[in-house]
């Protein structure tokens, strides 16, 4: 395990202290994979999980953790997920793994969002990481032109199809000074399913893995 992966694991294990009872929301990605593996050790404490992707569902079920449809459960008390970038306000870029739409839905349906990451994910200004945008296939070129108008350079993630059957445009060269405003603007483009800015519903807690141990930012 390299240093970055060890810090992801450290943050993931620290998030276990937020797990109480009931059904919890689970995100997607390599950091969340560590969380799922750690959750398996205390699975008797929870009733199960709502998952944000096919990949996380498979991993949860592999550990014998029941996975529920979000429509079958009420509000979730906790959502744990990773991020590609976070600023100090806990506004995030997500979607490097392409699961941004389901992640945003489960985050919205949860009272508390605990974000887990290695310390490299904390940035001053969002946007160095190419911003993922999930797009309905027939709107790909139109949405790309609109994103150019906003100052970005969209790149089609060729060969990738989301769990919802859609495409991803990764938008380079954005310096996101007003994350909530840009989130609304991009979400309003016809054909956009979701943009990977999580600013209107930021994380509530950020746990960063660092060489000195887990650090919590609120
Ligand atoms: C998936 C995501 C992930 O949370 C994000 O890409 C971080 O991934 P990792 O934990 O592998 O660094 O948003 O859509």
From TrEMBL:
Residues that, per the record, bind substrate: 28-31, 81-84, 94-97, 121
Function, as annotated, reads: Catalyzes the reversible conversion of ribose-5-phosphate to ribulose 5-phosphate.
**Reactions the enzyme catalyzes:** aldehydo-D-ribose 5-phosphate = D-ribulose 5-phosphate
Identify the keywords attached in UniProt to this record, alphabetized: Isomerase
Pathway where this protein functions: Carbohydrate degradation; pentose phosphate pathway; D-ribose 5-phosphate from D-ribulose 5-phosphate (non-oxidative stage): step 1/1
Complex formation: Homodimer.
Recorded hits in Gene3D superfamilies, A to Z, give: 3.30.70.260, 3.40.50.1360
Protein name per UniProt: Ribose-5-phosphate isomerase A
Give the enzyme's main class according to its UniProt record, as a single word: isomerase
Q: What is its EC number?
A: 5.3.1.6
